[in-house]
Design a protein that fits this description.
The protein is of the alpha/beta class. The protein has 14 helices and 19 strands. The longest helix has 17 residues. The structure holds zinc ion. The site of zinc ion (ZN) has 5 residues, from loops.
Length: 446
Amino acid sequence: MVYFLMQRKKKENCISQFIGEKMKTFLLKNAMLYRKHKFDYCDIYVEDGVIKSISKDIDKDVKTIDLRGQLVSHNFIDMHTHLREPGFEHKETIATGTEAALYGGYGTVVAMANTLPCMDNQETIDDFNSRVQKDAKVNVYTYSAITKGLKGVELVDMEHIVDNAIVLGFSDDGKGVQNDEMMELAMQLASNIDSIIVAHCEDESELHGGCIHDGKYAKEHGLVGINNASEFKQVARDLDIVKVYKNRYHVCHISTKETVELLRQAKKDGLRVSGEAAPHHLILTDENIQDCHPNYKMNPPLRSKEDHDALIKGLNDHTITVIATDHAPHSREEKNRPLDLSPFGIIGIQHAFCLMYTYLVKKDLVKLETILDALTVGPAKVLRLDASIEVGKTANLCVFDLDEKFVVKEEDIKSKSVNTPFIDVECYGKIKANIINGELNILEEL
Ligand SMILES: [Zn+2]
């Protein structure tokens, strides 16, 4: 017994020396591996970045880490990230945004096109790609805008832009495409080139300068509200177009019960549609807003309890198969303005998993398997990426300590911005290591 303790102590000392070191050949002992909707207690041997074996009792004379039953899954895919570069480097850069993603357990992010210049042409996308090659800590893809400058007036050259390997689809995120004919043309072209429209649905005729949900909190504080129709009316319009062109279509940041129902029906009708929910909409409602603080202001807004219940139900019955962060950094100065004048959006990529593990899984609202699927195989399926864990494949894995309790602290945030309502919130489920394209990044002592 004494010998065992000494040996274990020695191992822990050894592992702490690995922090920051990058390895491509290593053995993970005693992992609780999640894949194919099942948990399995096993060892994982990675050689030169490739998974060579997954089985019990592997012995190799390589760097060995005893995980003592800690959870291992595929690392996450965020199909909705605002990296802000080029143009808004005071909010976030590719380097800082992907560092936050790395610490959040993400292996892949898809950047939104609302940069400056806008990601609506080959040249800007090529420039973005070269910045990614230089600075990114995780795999990065992007969407092209649907319309030039997100103005909703002229379509981008979809047929040529789609050939760029870094482009996974088309999105005017930040704005809804208001013109029906424009959206119809985009969907028709998307169908022709077998690409996907990733839609921020927002009918501007339903907006009246609102900044939070048109509910109890808005009424009590004399604020203009954003109604549910501003979202679901445009979702309904888009789904009618999808019925005609049978194109791939994805709804961003679903926030209303009506949208969940529309998506449920569209899936029943056999359309190639999908939808995502953001962690903040899955955890908070407008009743959680405190002191009219701009860190509770995002678009779409935190909705009612009924909308929240519908999102949870939609996630549990697989109407919603993707959890995407809508990570939207803004500087301290921008977010320090009064609620009605501050920009929409909060950061979220670094703490998405631990917040959902703490406030959804531990509270028995959603199963851990459902959360993990919606962060890995769910987005992979929508974007045609691979999130499987198999012998012979490059290792893209994440190691978690589900029992480790910690508090979200501003000084620990890797993003350039700190606009989140979750500062000082207690969490479980710390990300300990993230294996990106076969390379082990130990983030914390295991
Ligand atoms: Zn959006």
